[in-house]
Here is the input.
Amino acid sequence: MRILKEDEALEKAKEVLQKGKIVVAPTDTIYGMLADATNEEAVKRLYEIRRPSGKPFLVLIPDENWIEKLCLELPEKYKFLLHKEGVTLVLRKRCNKLSHVSKDSLAVRIPRRGFVRKLLNIFGKPLVAPSVNPEGKKPAATIKEAVNYFGNEVELYVDGGEIKGEPSTVVDLREGLKILREGRVKREEITE
Here is the structure.
């Protein structure tokens, strides 16, 4: 287990993810537990320590091209939501890519800023990114809380200070538009 500040952690975080290990780092909303979404073993390990219920993880994607690469259905009229900061979209899948993350659909978001944006740029692949907490507990707002939750189960902790953000707003686009969780972006902003 290692703790690094954001400004010294980028290359190390990439290296840890490439080895199939887990990184706790600031995302565009709150702290996230990051693993290479294309590495089945890494995702399986993250499910074991973070979400034994098996409820699907959201996936942070580097850019819009990954919608096609992952065979996701994004209706043209809702494409603008992909570029709205703090919005996670649940999309239907047309193939079985990342089936170890989720079977019929995938929840995706493109982070627009911060450490995770830089990490996606140099890593070049999607990351699973659940919040940093055991199921049913409140998400960690500091690295100290994250370490208390997961200790040595995580290879690298990236300290971005205290983060008291709201989680993303989750919008289901599989059949029309349905808001599953209201977070940072309010319902009115989306329905307008």
In short: Residues 141 and 153 are 18 Å apart (CA to CA).
